[in-house]
Fold this protein.
Amino acid sequence: MNSLMSTFLLLQCISTLVFTAISTPPDDPIKCVSGNSDCTVTNSYGAFPDRSTCRAADVAYPTTEAELISIVAAATKARRKMRVTTRYSHSITKLVCTDGTEGLFISTKFLNHTVRADGEAMTLTVESGVTLRQLIAEAAKVGLALPYAPYWWGLTVGGMMGTGAHGSSLWGKGSAVHDHVTEIRMVSPGSVNDGFAKVRVLSKTTTPNEFNAAKVSLGVLGVISQVTFTLQPMFKRSIRYVMKNDSDFGDQAVTFGKKHEFADFVWLPSQGKVVYRMDDRVPVNTSGNGLFDLLPFRSQLSAALAIIRSSEETQERFRDANGKCVGATLISSTLFASSFGLTNNGIIFTGYPVTGSQNRMMSSGSCLDSLQDGLITACPWDSRIKSEFFHQTTFSVPLTQVKSFITDIKSLVKIERKSLCGLELYYGILMRYVTSSPAYLGKETEALDFDLTYYRAKDPLTPRLYEDFIEEIEQIALFKYNALPHWGKNRNLAFDGVIKKYKNAPAFLKVKESYDPTGLFSTEWTDQILGIKGNATIVKDGCALEGLCICSEDAHCAPTKGYLCRPGKVYKEARVCTRVSGISVIQSVSY
């Protein structure tokens, strides 16, 4: 498909993105053959990093804490493996999977109630299956606001706590949701004397060690039943997006977060541009009724999504870098011109700044607004249709190292400017600020979180256009700058040895041993990422193509298609799958 046709189709698709307002609701991630038995679980994208199928003998859907206790007790008595699942299952990593086929999924889908709201104490207690959208709305009912949160509101409270989900801020207690929690109720396996289940009430004042372990738990301590948040009086935000040249971005990235409370960036490295989000708190009596309804989180016509995916598959097949770059420029300029979905009154955008209440400005996800339309429309990544299918590589680089890291990425772009257009087709590199957290598996220092989303082939053995550039960025961050991977978003290679990066890991593992000594809530995957047993990487032919391993020999790439294992271009210690042209005989090389 030539670049002109790609541009035309993308224009059509963007128009549907802007104007489509309804959507078929996402599918339930759990499917069972018979009632609630013989079940599988997937994530909202339809595939885990290793493309495995996760099975369990049964799924349970508790509706109250009492039912949850009964379920955990029965499974503990029977020595069954358990894992918690959520309504939308948004984690890319295998955190919902249990081992084998005889385990139990415990879904929090119906643990979705508000327990109590205390306007005077400015606290809100909810069950763990409550979505971020519900949490924001319930707080607003009593004139309160959660100060920081992820931008996608389809996450659940338990899911956010399990993975360390965050927004963007260096201010106050920082942008991680778990650092605005005052109490956690956790249901874990118990002894015979406990009735095989134990309910613990955790807080900073009464159980500080256990509380700091439970704030980012990866689901290995038990099931979070309820969470109490400390909130703030409702306030408004004033947002302005500004696009600039990225020539001084290394310096700006380090300081910008101190100037604006909710600052973030969308970096377009192949275009040499950055979109700065100038986002500040303003008094609640400031005029304005703005709404943030992020365009990429709106529903889209399934037919348009299929066109976009087919276009990208064709660009990959014919190595059409120009087509990708044309499309990327079109998408980024359209998003910027459309203010990324900001409106001044909930309907139209009339100009900056856009001012609105925190509950209307902090998060969005209108593709979840559900009308059953037979999949005529859907969320852009819905796996039931031909839609977006991508990898996500997300990590936090210490703020002291950010300038050097940005310089390294720019050095790669200088080698081949078209190399990162593929990232820009997925809206660019989203960059959000995070702070150090007392949570044992939370962030270790002030950092900038880089979120890279990029094409994933349906065939795991198909190499990607310029995949070596993205692989090198991934390895530069993780190994040169010791970046921390997001627990819910990365490919396997990011988690090899990751637990060594957390100074409080021994304290976390001590709590885990106390709460679940027989490992009923642990799995092969959690044991690997926690450094208990085995490695997260999977070494086999083609493993580096999907981030299951870092290549050490050509067979880990795609030698028959000309992709060989080679050193990095800027970071020589990296090992990446590089397309080597002009070779008549491919010889296997080991590194």
Notes: The mean pLDDT is 94. Residues 112-231 form a domain with the Uridine Diphospho-n-acetylenolpyruvylglucosamine Reductase; domain 3 fold (CATH 3.30.465.10). The chain has 14 helices and 26 strands.
